[in-house]
Design goal:
single chain, 448 residues, alpha/beta, Rossmann fold, eight-stranded mixed β-sheet, six-stranded parallel β-sheet, 17 helices, 16 strands, 42% helix, globular
């Protein structure tokens, strides 16, 4: 099969779970005899030269092509992320010539890159991989300055997903979420994850206790990733609370308008940046080192489609404490190969931390081995690649979805000339509050 993957990132030009997801099984598809092409289309990242790695051909949508499409969505100028996302999606479509030479296409729900492949009748059969859409993320962590944009994106997503040729997710919980929302079948296919080259990462009983005793969290400092839940749990433990290292970039907390880390430092001055050390974004090698050397890994997410750091911790032979809000919790049998705890429940996390800290060296080693065995068995890249190749063959057999997209949806998401003033809607607003807003914004820029 000739397979095209239109996705927002791919290593080494990536730093998130989507890049990790595809890097784990695309080379395996090549080994199985398929022709694999990756087109990176990201509205908000830089451009890079194309290359080939492990038989996978990788190219990037040029920034100039995205800029050229921006005017075709000038009517969305008041919603700049939506405008740029649609421009990027159609720039990718034009760059790859509508996927004419491919048997099947996979795209993701993040960034609206799926739009041309769903609304264009001449597109090849297309599957949307549901990693965590822009609309979902906005729903769980709304930004105060983007309420209209978030709602409009969710309407576009649900409209397109309802008529997609096929839908997949890498966690049962997210598959069920979308099935209930759009009344469509969503296939669950597990992600792939290879064990580290040095599989014997589990320390002997005599050395296990030599670890620092500190735990690690890997993820953005973001509301729905659960940093406040972690702080509340540590607060409940008091002097018994272990130290934590948080690896990941800071983000703006929508309810406060400030960076999440600054908000946490105000709310938990004795914990955040003290008991919980924030080290920022690290290289993959440094991150893995922290995961191996930590006493345990915590995934405190209120919600997460999957959360690769949970599976990565298990692959490293680590004890993982995973919130049931994260899809990866489906991998864990609590007390056997890790621990599960109720989402958004500091008391449950505190009690789970105490259970973890009370493990004997022998119990730790047994649980670590069980964690690695789970990843080795369920997420084996070769096995997952075969499952996915069968899914692509099924997609090709069934072809396009029988119900075409609504004309209104197509009109709202395709490029078209626009000769009006994209900011003309401001004419309908009272002048006095507009003047005050411009004045305050000008003062902010001068202050910076």
């Amino acid at each position: 099969m000739r397979l095209l993957f239109t996705i927002p990132e791919y290593p080494p030009h990536s730093g998130g779970g989507i890049g990790t997801f595809y890097a784990q099984f695309l080379p395996q598809l090549v080994t199985q005899g398929h022709e694999v092409t990756v087109l990176v289309a990201n509205p908000f990242s830089g451009e890079f030269e194309g290359y080939s790695e492990a038989g996978v051909t990788v190219s990037c949508v040029p920034k100039g092509a995205i800029a050229a499409q921006m005017s075709a969505f000038a009517h969305y100028a008041s919603l700049p992320e939506l405008q740029r996302s649609l421009a990027t999606a159609w720039a990718a479509w034009e760059f790859i010539k509508g996927g004419q030479k491919f048997d099947a296409v996979e795209t993701t729900d993040w960034g609206l890159t799926f739009v041309p492949w769903i609304v264009s009748p001449e597109a090849p059969p297309t599957v949307i991989q549901l990693h965590g859409s822009m609309g979902q993320i906005d729903f769980y962590d709304p930004q105060l300055d983007k309420p209209v944009q978030g709602r409009l994106i969710r309407l576009i997503e649900t409209g397109c997903f309802a008529v997609a040729d096929a839908l997949q997710s890498n966690s049962p919980s997210n598959a069920h979420y979308w099935q209930a929302l759009i009344h469509r079948e969503v296939d669950y296919l597990p992600p792939a994850l290879a064990l580290p080259h040095a599989e014997n990462l589990i320390e002997s009983d005599s050395n296990t206790g030599a670890k620092s005793g500190a735990g690690v969290v890997v993820g953005r400092i973001q509301h729905w990733k659960g940093p406040a839940v972690l702080c509340e749990a540590l607060q409940l433990l008091g002097d018994r609370a272990p130290g934590m290292v948080w690896i990941g970039r800071d983000t703006v907390y929508g309810q406060s308008g400030t960076f999440m880390s600054d908000w946490l430092a105000q709310q938990y001055p004795n914990l955040w940046r003290k008991k919980v050390q924030c080290v920022g974004t690290l290289s993959p090698q440094e991150t893995r080192r922290h995961q191996r050397e930590a006493a345990f890994t915590v995934v405190p997410s209120l919600w997460d489609v999957f959360n690769f750091t949970s599976a990565e911790g298990m692959a490293c032979g680590q004890i993982v404490l995973c919130s049931e809000g994260a899809g990866a919790t489906a991998l864990i049998e609590s007390g056997v190969n890790g621990f599960r705890f109720a989402a958004n429940d500091p008391q449950a996390l505190a009690e789970t931390l105490e259970r973890c800290l009370a493990l004997s060296p022998a119990e730790r080693t047994k649980m670590q081995q069980a964690a690695q065995d789970t990843i080795r068995t369920l997420l084996d890249p070769e096995r997952v690649a075969y499952q996915r190749s069968e899914a692509y063959a099924k997609l090709m057999h069934h072809g396009r979805w029988q119900t075409p997209p609504q004309e209104w949806l197509r009109e709202a998401t395709t490029p078209r000339p626009f000769s009006g003033n994209p900011l003309a809607f401001l004419d309908a607003l009272p002048l006095q509050p507009l003047v005050r807003y411009v004045f305050r914004r000008s003062l902010k820029k001068l202050w910076r």
